[in-house]
Amino acid sequence: NEAVSKNFIEQEIDKDLAEGVYDHVCTRFPPEPNGYLHIGHAKSILLNYGLAQEYGGTFHMRFDDTNPTKEKMEFVDSIKEDIQWLGADWGEHLYFASDYFDQMYECAVKLIKKGKAFVCDLTAEEMREYRGTLTEPGKESPYRNRSVEENLRLFEEMRDGKYKDGEKVLRAKIDMASPNINMRDPILYRVAHMTHHNTGDKWCIYPMYDFAHPIEDAIEGITHSICTLEFEDHRPLYDWVVRECEFENPPRQIEFAKLYLTNVVTGKRYIKKLVEDGIVDGWDDPRLVSIAALRRRGFTPESIKMFIDMCGVSKAQSSVDYAMLEYCIREDLKMKKPRMMAVLDPIKLVIDNYPEGETEYLDVANNLENEELGYRKVPFGRELYIEREDFMEEPPKKYFRLFPGNEVRLMHAYFVKCVSFEKDENGNVTTVHCTYDPETKAGSGFTGRKVKGTIHWVPAAYAQKAEVRLYENLIDEEKGVYNKEDGSLNLNPDSLKVIGNAMVEPSFEGAGAYDSFQFVRNGYYCIDAHDSAPDHLVFNRIVSLKSSFKL
Ligand code: ATP
Ligand code: MG
Ligand code: MG
């Protein structure tokens, strides 16, 4: 049953179309350009864009830039880049709310003329007192009964710069006794002598969000104005504005629950603080969940879409496990990416009976689960690097990797048997000596005997040194996001570990920013877009192969 599998917003839209409330669908994504977008915004973008696609409608990209204090062009550019990267195509439909300032002003004048708005001289503090509380009705402002003529003159004077910031505001005349505080004569316009990034010094009065937003939607012909739950109580005011301003075919607001993730910092202002306090290295630090950070970390638009789809849309507030996002990127990369050999903590392996100075080139499948990715040649020789943890002097039970006397397979190559090892003065193993059996070459069809362990390796003579950055969640999972005593973030001190001397096979030539790979037996990694160079490869760990996440 299709109707049942649709989310509640789709059901509302279906109903509106069936009842003829609207004959098409037009949605929008309206960010304020005051920071970078994060994974929560991705939900809103993909939801709005997805609905427009699904119903053959239109998707608008609109900068909600009506508050000049915090807005910057830098953010306008980053937001556009992020939305394009996510694949939400706004086509011709790019808008700036500040382009509607004239129309908003006209709407305010209309309300004054209808006796639905008045200029108020109460101070901010007085206004708070007059507003009342959840249990107490508010009191009417003494300026509420000014004549239309006086209000028109004063509002014009506000616009013309006659008053200082905070001296006068324009308020809606609704109902000071309303149980909904948003309806108690809310402010529509305030005086703010500030330069706006788009309109410069043309205006010294700016509309409030609750007045501006419905007008923006109505001007653009938005049908379904989808926003997050905290605006539910503002919906009566939204409807009041579009009704009293007498827009035809008014839009309707529908609210859904924000996306929250465990163990990471969502929320623009919190991410901003981490950046400003220098706790992370900029807005695209790979430990953040800004879109820019996810991109740099190696997440793909496909993985984010899969994640958002899995989250679903609802009105119930909840937190989603970060491990689900990791599941999605693993799923996306699994078949698409080559599986390479990289050794993060190298020790030498010497094959004593392999001819010195000889190199052979082995055919290695790029991805055993996807033949389409083809093969590559990997050089093999007498000296290799292997992971320190793949050798043990005294192995515990069920350890099937290298130890004295044990035989393992070198992935894509031969069986080798450990004959001896060397240690440095500190007792750390430096070199493992083996012999190999030429009969056992991978792909030769050898079936004479079996080994229980397979380890990967990198040819020493051809290895490339690399820097590898291992990330963990920025937040300490055990303690929760915020410190109970002082409200500070419970940061994980090990959220970044840098490995300076990893060794990778020589097959990364030509790989560039954002390219990603599986490092076999380890995880998925991508080339860091800021710091990697052909002669100094830097990899970010996207996600490890292991997971406790179950679908
Ligand atoms: P933040 O709360 O992180 O500061 P914001 O709401 O201030 O974000 P805006 O630029 O105002 O950011 O938001 C643009 C759109 O993105 C809004 O429609 C908002 O409801 C939506 N949005 C913001 N955060 C989330 C979230 N966590 N989940 C879903 N949608 C979100
Ligand atoms: Mg905001
Ligand atoms: Mg907001």
TrEMBL record:
Binding site for ATP: 32-34, 38-44, 228
Record domain tRNA synthetases class I (E and Q) anti-codon binding: where: 454-528
Enzyme nomenclature, EC number: 6.1.1.18
Annotated ranges, domain Glutamyl/glutaminyl-tRNA synthetase class Ib anti-codon binding: 338-437
Localization per Swiss-Prot or TrEMBL: Cytoplasm
Motif ('HIGH' region): 31-41
Binding site for L-glutamine: 64, 209
Pfam family, one: tRNA-synt_1c
Domain Glutamyl/glutaminyl-tRNA synthetase class Ib catalytic: 25-334
GO molecular function, one term: ligase activity
Reactions listed under catalytic activity: tRNA(Gln) + L-glutamine + ATP = L-glutaminyl-tRNA(Gln) + AMP + diphosphate
Keywords: Aminoacyl-tRNA synthetase, ATP-binding, Cytoplasm, Ligase, Nucleotide-binding, Protein biosynthesis
Protein family (similarity comment): Belongs to the class-I aminoacyl-tRNA synthetase family.
Subunit structure: Monomer.
Name the UniProt record assigns to this protein: Glutamine--tRNA ligase
Organism listed in the record: Ruminococcus turbiniformis
Lineage, broadest ranks: Bacteria, Bacillati, Bacillota, Clostridia, Eubacteriales
